[in-house]
């Protein structure tokens, strides 16, 4: 069985990679030099001629990789496509700055960066002088506002848009796309269209794109805020809208990557099971499980106490939004849980010498193997030098937290209700922290889906390691390093003056 699962996982990984790489066939993908050093990528169809430029901007905590379905689809259609990492995001070493609460602060700086990328792309020999801005979520407002100030902007594609800058006739040729399951933003899409025609419905075309007066709202079925980026409906609508705006009849495939990315991630996670089976087996020296009463105390007391204890303090040490608070929350949460477990004798025999190399092996697989997949096909996962201190700071909190989590859940051997209770209590603890200081910690809400996904993917792998080796602490150490890395490369860097 172990060899069969390993072989099947490798076959699915190879098939997924082949399918995903096929989307790049016929394209030249190369760095684009931008004034100020903004990391940017240029996508060109090898058989195309002069064409309009499409500048693609990602949302908050995103990166160029997340927008690749649109970049590949539009490049295959013959457009000159430039995608980039905003300051503070992805590979961009420059932190976000300015006043985040005003249009003339951070928003203005991001608009200027978007404009610099557009000028660099328009200078390419294949650019015909016409320009499109495409942005998702946070960037939807950025591209709308930049288009209003950019004479060369002929069209805007705003995905998951919320922008107060849209008027009845500006920006020109506006296509608004939203996922069916992001209800409020879907309503905003229709609202933007009805500024031009109060009787219009989603899917209608208002005005004439060929004359620069077009407007349309498209609702992509059965997708949410991230899924909309992989929706065939959204990708096709964007390509067709640009063709209508520029009088083109594009050919080329739509980069339907979402399904293959899921297959690749599942197969990569599944590969961890046979690899875990090759680790040295051991019954371990785990003490008997905690009684229900003691377990509930260990699971729930830190969840309640940590946000209450930290609420009075303003914590700004790391140059990443809410990362310093999160590191302290994780560390204090883990320390409290470990103290209770030590008091009840649950740490006895948990730290033999071999846990360190096993923990490092878990971290290596999570960061290098699964992280490499994520970096290539999903979102930026490789840090620049400025993020190293952030990862180290988060590790000081994440390792104790996941060490306690691993021991409390007995390395995957605990009853399912106990595992669910432990993870749900932590998520609720973060929710309570936000409720106590909403203005300062609002962005913690954004990481909740990331942590849920982390528990599902990496928690499953840690359980395989714990059940095989009998060492819950090994998986906890490895997962702590992976969590610190994942959060450290994801959240935007902020200059102190922006907070």
In summary, what is this structure?
Residues 53-162 form the Serine aminopeptidase S33 domain. By secondary structure, the protein is an alpha/beta fold. It contains 15 helices and 9 strands.
Structure, described:
By secondary structure, the protein is α/β, with parallel strands linked by helices. The chain has 2 domains: about 25-255, Alpha/Beta hydrolase fold, catalytic domain (Rossmann fold); about 260-499, no CATH class. Helices cover about 55% and strands about 10% of the residues. A hairpin with an 8-residue loop joins strand 1 and strand 2 (about 40-45).
Write the layout of secondary structure elements.
Layout lengths: L1 H21 L4 E5 L8 E6 L5 E7 L10 H9 L3 E5 L18 H20 L4 E10 L1 H12 L3 E7 L14 E6 L3 H12 L10 E2 L8 E6 L11 H15 L11 H20 L14 H19 L12 H21 L10 H24 L10 H21 L7 H21 L1 H4 L2 H26 L2 H19 L9
Helix pairs in contact: 1-7, 2-6, 3-4, 7-10, 7-14, 8-9, 8-12, 9-11, 10-15, 11-15, 12-14, 14-15
InterPro entries: AB_hydrolase_fold, Hydrolase_4
Keywords: Hydrolase, Membrane, Transmembrane, Transmembrane helix
Organism: Roseinatronobacter bogoriensis subsp. barguzinensis
